[in-house]
Each structure stands twice: as C-alpha cells, then as structure tokens.
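Example with several molecule types.
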Amino acid sequence: MDSTTEEKIYEAARRIFLLKGMEGARMQEIADEAGMNKALLHYYFRSKENLFKAVFKDIFTKFFSKVKDTIFSDISAKEKLIVFIDNYINLIQANPYVPQFIINEINRDPKVLKTLMFESGIEPQKILEMFFNEAQASNLSKLDPRHIIVSILGMLIFPFVARPLLQMIYFNDNQEAYTEFLNERKEIVKNMILKLIEA
Amino acid sequence: MDSTTEEKIYEAARRIFLLKGMEGARMQEIADEAGMNKALLHYYFRSKENLFKAVFKDIFTKFFSKVKDTIFSDISAKEKLIVFIDNYINLIQANPYVPQFIINEINRDPKVLKTLMFESGIEPQKILEMFFNEAQASNLSKLDPRHIIVSILGMLIFPFVARPLLQMIYFNDNQEAYTEFLNERKEIVKNMILKLIEA
DNA sequence: GTCTATATGGCGATAGAC
DNA sequence: GTCTATCGCCATATAGAC
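Resulting structure tokens for the full complex:
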C-alpha cells in the first residue's frame, strides 16, 4: 500500500458508498476504512457531497464505457447482442453492487446523472441508431431496439438487485445455489434474446 | 376525511415512506403530510422504526397477495403466465414506486423481510411447485420456472426502477413518450414469454 | 389526545495545535 | 499533512402543560 492519502480515501469511499449509498454511508466509516482521521476527508474533498460525486462519476462512467467496445466492434448486430450479454453478465458479477448503487442514486437525485451524461463521452443515442440501421439492413427483428435492450438489462440486473428476496424464497437462503442460478442465466438470457430477434 | 388520527398518520407515512424510503423520510415530513404534530407520531407508534415496519408489512403483503388469485385459478399454466403478466403490469402501473421501495429495503435490512415472510401467509414455494407439476404434465417448456419468473419480473420492473436514466437517454426526458413505451411493453413481454415457453 | 418545548445523540464540518 | 477537540445543525424521541 504505497498509494497516496487521497487515493486511500478515494478507494475507501468507493467501497463504502457502493455498499451503503450516499445517505447510508458515514464519513467516520469511510475514515475507518481508509485507516485515518475523519478530518482528512474534508481536507482533501471538502464535503461528503464532493467525495460522493467523484466516486459516482467514476463508477458510472467505468461501468458504461466497458460495453462500448463491444457495441461498436465489427460484427453483426445479432452477434453484438450475444457478446454484449456475455460481457455484461461478467461485468455485473465482478461488480455485483453497482446496479443497485446506480439505481438508488438516479432515483435519489437525477440531477447528478444529467450533468454526468453531458460531461462524459457516453452517447446512448449512437448505440440506438446503430441498432436501428442494422435492423433495417438485415433480417433482424424490426422490434424497437429499446425494448430489446431494456429486456436484456432487466433480466440480467433484476436477480442481483432483488437477491436477498429471491435467494430466500426460492433457494432457502443457500448462497451457493443462488450463485449457480446466476450462472445458469447466462445461457437462458442468450437463448431468449436469440428467439426474440430471429424475426 | 373522517378517519381516525392513527389512520391519518398511517396513510401519510405510507405516502412519504414509499417516495423516500426509511432513511430518506423525516418524521416532521410525515407529520406535515398528516396535518398534525410530530409528537403524535410517537404517541401512536412509539418510534420511526415501528411506523416503518407497519407500513412496509402492509405494502409488501398487499403487493404480493394481489397475484395469488391468478396463480391458483383454474386455467392452464401457460394462460396463468399471460394473465399474471397483465395483472402484474397493471399492479405496478397503479403503484409505480412499490418495486423500488421493496428493493431498497430488502437490501438495506434483509432481517425485516425474513420475519415478514414467516408472519404473512405468502408461500412462494407452492407457486413454484404448481409450475413444476404443470410443466411435467403438459407440453410446457421444461425450463426451470424460477428463470421464467425472474425474467418476467426483471423485464417488467426494471423500466420502472431505472426510469430516470432510461427516460433521459432514450426519450429526451419526454414523460409521455416514456409512458407510451411502458404501455408497449405489455405485449412485448407477453410475446417474449410465449415464445419462451412453447417448448 | 394534542400541543409546545426540550432533551439527547449523531453527523458533517471546521479550528487550531503539532 | 495529520491529528484532537469542538461547533452547529438536524433528527428522533420525550416531558409536561392543557
């Protein structure tokens, strides 16, 4: 651990905010996690709001930019969707708290989200256009790609954000069984989407 | 408004908690909403936690029991799924904040959920068994019904909990356009599930 | 039962010594 | 830069008059 104090604070804040959200997190908790005094957090970031925004921006943009490469790669739209599903599941499994974190905060304060979308280079409209164009030119389903994307995201994200409930009622709170269930969903969702887009 | 004071508090708490959650809600806010003094809330419910638990239990059980009748009605499993989708969409549209509310709280404090499942008469296992049995006896897909249910719920709930984000990036923040999008999903999801379960 | 006033504690933020 | 001590505020909760 030869990282700077500022980096240590940042990493600690990332972990705590991800687990508890802006409202649930405590500055004292972040200081403990970083192994230092609470006053240092204000010395480096001035306010909790500032610290949170820095963390949120980082998590949000990293999560979204990860799928960009797939979307604009040189394969067919159908293949893109399949690769996208694979990559997205891997991404969520590696960051299981991110979806809940983002959903919480976009509902708590949508303004943060709006400024963020302008600042970062994320252009969801371009992704839509790409799908529209490819759908016109190929034998792909003429279904509005927004419905396809929302369906995929919903099917993938829901079992993570509703995990405590689903794991309890369907798997007797068996953690391993639920992880296995999540793994099965890779193929399930891929097959569903394939059936859907084969017009 | 000839309801009792306790009922007024309860209704006000229901509205505020639903919008802001346990952590976001303020007792003063609930008192204002109920049109009375803050001290009365403690007189009738002793603590915020108590008041919240009463509200959560009510919202949770009502929301879940609404679909029970469909599930155990005298029609085929395939028809049940279709009717279930219809009823569930109507239920969410009439209570658009409930899914986010429940997801928030089951992640914040899963213990509340556990005691609740025991106390209430909700038996998700029976619903599963029913689907398992019907799947064996008919030409229904042999797919694990848990995957079907999670897929349906995800596709239906996600556009509500991620609304601020999706409405902004896909519909230029046009509220009417997004409502129309939500209406379209009724048929979309039904068709997807039909394709899926036709083995 | 319903109100006003106040106690109590926790949290974000700052002052100031080192 | 990093710490201790403390301020100021706000939220839950209670005491006590009416």
